Structure formats: structure tokens, C-alpha cells
């Protein structure tokens, strides 16, 4: 029972891992707690393997925080329909951009221990922290610091070369670190992914990502300079996106603390909602298509990620240069004002 490192394609690793829990006990499927909003890979994987999705809502009113009381509520809701086995935590959040505090992670670990849940920590954006009051804390590190019995809990954490400030999104690869898993189960997992190979290029880039330049190496100074410049630009663009979005009538956005997205909430007139329903679309999907057709701006509707019923969101990125972000958001603002007039 130690540490296992899997060099693989990240999405394939997470899918193979979740398939370990694909069994029925007392004629009930295994259940997996996932955040809402969430990265759609998880809901799609659960559906493919016949696992029950147990959604827990992040608290939008408190910067998309993860609250143990909501985890407890989600478990109570499904106690008669499935067997909860896994808790998925995405930190920093996608699409919400929140960063969990050390205390928050401790409480989540205690919750998982109390309910005998395997922890799955999606930490692929761990290097993208640009909020001055936030810091990344890995679940493994916090569990170890807490000591027994928490340090003996089963945990799988994911990292990717396709995210973070080095973000090579066209190159797919990553790794999973698994601790305290039973050796027999680990053998099954290794066998299940034995035919999954990352590309040679992906493996080369992964080696570069996990072994950055050291202080005594020639490229260290330039590496640090470029890294700091990228993260500083993320912080500036995050603030810019937050300010402009919150200036749009009916918009409310939490400032992103990490990752590379904004996930604003927006209100729609009742006539717009009726028009969406008439076309068989969710209101935020209808809005996103109107936005694309009228401005060329592409966003992903919040309903793709999950959201509290009756609310509307979309995900957009903070990656473009500041000049392009300003142009895009100004076009979005003008579109929204016209949209409100059209459907008022």
C-alpha cells in the first residue's frame, strides 16, 4: 500500500480509475460525488460506466466555495438509490476558478473519511494561482500533515501537461498519483490501462513539465521570468474580466482565483426564456447561440457544466491578450443590452 504513478493520457486515466467502482451492491449502483458546475468529462464517464452521479452544488454566493454541509445534503438525497464510493474535487475549479483553502481541504478529507469515500483530486490547474490571497494545497500534502487515520486514506490525484501556465493544449498527456490503494486493486488498474499509451511527444513534454529548471541551471532565470510574466498577466486579465462582466446589466461574476476561466451568472427576460423553450433549448444555450450568430463570440453555456435550476451561466476564458479581451467583452456588453431590449 504505497504510491503508484501512472504516466498516461489524463482523460483515459480518470475513466479507467472510475471503472474500478463499476459494481452493484444490494442491487444498487456505485455513486460518485461530483461538483456542480463540473468538467463534463466526469458526468459523461459516469453515464458510460453506469455509475450514479451525485451532484453537490458549489456555493456561488461565497466565491464558489465547497461546503461540507452541501456534501452531507447530497449524500442524504441518494442514500436509498446508490452506494456512494468516490468523492471528486476539482481544485482549482473548472469552470468556476475557485481555489480551496487549507482548512476547507481538511474538512473535505474528514468528510471523506467519515463516509469511507475514495478521494479523487483533480488538480490539473494547480500551477495557475494568481489571486494574491490564495494558494494551492495538494490533498496528498494536507492528508499527510493531518496524520492518521487521514494519512492512510485512499487518494488519486491527477495532473496534466495540457493545463497550467505551460499549457500545451494540443499535446495530450498527464499522470495520476495514487496512494494507499490495495496492491491487488492497483494490479487491476494497471492492467486496465495497459493498452493506453500517451504519444512519444506527450511523454517528452511531461518530463519537461515535472522537471523544471533548477536554480543552478542556465535556463532557470529566464524560466522564472517567463513564468512570472504569464501568471502576472493572468491576474491582470482576471481582474479586467471581472470588472467588465460586473458592469453589464444583469451580470454577476465571481473573480477567478485560479485556472483560466470566468463563469458569470446572467439574468434573462421571461420572453427570452419562452423563446428558448419554443426552440427546445435551455435558455443559456439559446443565449449563447444568439451571441455567436450576432458577434462571433463563442462561449460554453452553463447547462453543459450543471447549475442550480433557474440560473444561467456561461464559461469563457481569460487567455487572450488584454486588447482582445476588452474588444470581446465590449461586444458582449453591447449585444446583451440589445438582447434585453429585444426580449423585454
From TrEMBL:
The lineage of its organism: Eukaryota, Metazoa, Ecdysozoa, Arthropoda, Hexapoda. Residues 29-332 form the Aminotransferase class I/classII large domain. InterPro entries: ALAT1/2-like (IPR045088), Aminotransferase_I/II_large (IPR004839), PyrdxlP-dep_Trfase (IPR015424), PyrdxlP-dep_Trfase_major (IPR015421), PyrdxlP-dep_Trfase_small (IPR015422). Pathway: Amino-acid degradation; L-alanine degradation via transaminase pathway; pyruvate from L-alanine: step 1/1. Belongs to the class-I pyridoxal-phosphate-dependent aminotransferase family. Alanine aminotransferase subfamily. Keywords: Aminotransferase, Pyridoxal phosphate, Transferase. GO terms for biological process: L-alanine catabolic process. Its cofactor is pyridoxal 5'-phosphate. This is alanine transaminase. The keyword Plastid does not apply. Homodimer. It is an enzyme of class 2 (transferase). GO terms for molecular function: L-alanine:2-oxoglutarate aminotransferase activity; pyridoxal phosphate binding.
